[in-house]
Design a protein that fits this description.
mainly alpha
């Protein structure tokens, strides 16, 4: 998922759409590992925070896409080039996986993919996050993780038009701040209304754009106010701390507890990831560079999109197979599940690596024609 920072995209540096930040590859690697460990090793209960990987992806994506849009705003065919590049990055892996899961898996396994086949139109149009809110899948989560791809594509369908319309950085800044505040207030109002049959957990999870807004805002601020973070980091951190303490005391004394993540949690984490993103970009810390510019995390960053798309279907398909294979080897069920999860994860990594070099990379090279 997300606009890839790789050696392939580095070929596009001559186009001056954006510089290449090696540490962001590592940051993306951290994001995908958080998600994979949450899904594939959730039974250990040590990776309950892995959902934060998606928010980190959103912050990265918002920054990178907005930086590209701002740098190419005055070029001819601004919108057409952006959408073509987006299609080349997202569509091949996405639709290949979608077709395989809907049409091939039922032929090879006992998996029932009727829900996804009947609602294929939602996935084809990247509207599945709304489908999950009003008609969630019952028991079959094979493509449930595609919600985040829908959130991103919906945002980026309109965001270039807004940039083209507003143009001036100050207007864009206030638009993003207003949108961020509006999202928080919208979740609050929906919680108060308590609409019947609305999957509130799904709504809070599947429609959040806090991270994308924060990442986009950072891209704009670095162009207009490069010293912004030096001046206001302390004030922002203290404000967030005060807001979180206020939320704690409200919940402590209230009869009905307010959902922390839906109200301020998603926004708080997005802003903190924004600070981490800024440190990676400016290389202001040797520790940050050491952590995120290493080859291991950067490797996972390069294959992150494919790994995000493939890892969950592969896990669901292969874990039962590996579990049966290890039945005679491990007497303990937890040991079997651990071994099966490791094998399934390794299979996902191999598939994602092959996908990057033989499927994604040829399409990424085509992007240079639209720079």
């Amino acid at each position: 998922m997300i606009e890839s920072l790789s050696k392939t995209t580095a070929l596009n540096e001559k186009s001056s759409l954006r510089p290449h930040y090696p540490a962001l590859d590592g940051l993306r690697g951290l994001a995908i590992l958080l998600v994979v460990f949450l899904h594939n090793f959730g039974f250990l209960h040590y990776f309950f925070f892995g959902w934060l990987g998606v928010d980190l992806f959103f912050v990265l994506s918002g920054f990178l896409i907005t930086e590209i849009l701002l740098n190419s705003l005055e070029e001819k065919n601004f919108l057409g080039r952006f959408y073509i590049r987006r299609v080349l990055r997202i569509f091949p892996v996405y639709f290949l996986t979608l077709a395989f899961c809907i049409w091939v898996i039922p032929q090879l396994t006992t998996f029932q993919m009727t829900y996804y086949r009947q609602n294929a139109g939602w996935f084809i149009t990247f509207l599945q996050n709304w489908l999950f809110i009003f008609n969630p899948p019952q028991g079959n989560s094979t493509l449930l993780h595609f919600w985040s791809l829908a959130v991103e594509e919906q945002f980026y369908l309109f965001w270039p038009w807004i940039i083209l319309l507003l143009r001036k950085p100050k207007r864009l800044q206030w638009f993003l701040v207003s949108l961020l505040v509006g999202v928080m207030l919208g979740r609050y109002l929906l919680w108060i209304l308590h609409i019947e049959n609305l999957a509130y957990d799904s709504f809070y999870t599947f429609t959040r754009i806090d991270g994308i807004c924060v990442g986009s805002l950072i891209a704009i601020l670095l162009k207009t106010h490069p010293d912004f973070f030096k001046k206001y980091t302390t004030a922002i951190v203290l404000s967030l701390a005060a807001l979180n303490f206020l939320m704690y005391f409200i919940n402590r004394n209230a009869e009905t507890r307010l959902p922390f993540l839906a109200f301020i949690g998603y926004t708080t984490f997005a802003i903190m990831f924004g600070f981490l993103l800024h440190e990676c970009i400016t290389a202001g810390s040797k520790l940050i560079k050491l952590l995120f510019a290493n080859h291991i995390l950067r490797f996972f960053g390069r294959i992150s999109y494919g790994l995000y798309v493939y890892h969950w279907p592969v896990y669901l398909l292969l874990t039962p197979v590996f579990n049966s294979i290890f039945l005679s080897v491990f007497g303990n069920e937890n040991s079997r599940l651990m071994a099966a999860s490791i094998c399934s994860t390794m299979a996902s990594i191999v598939i994602s690596t092959a996908s990057f070099y033989f499927l994604e990379k040829p399409f990424l090279k085509l992007k240079t024609r639209f720079s």
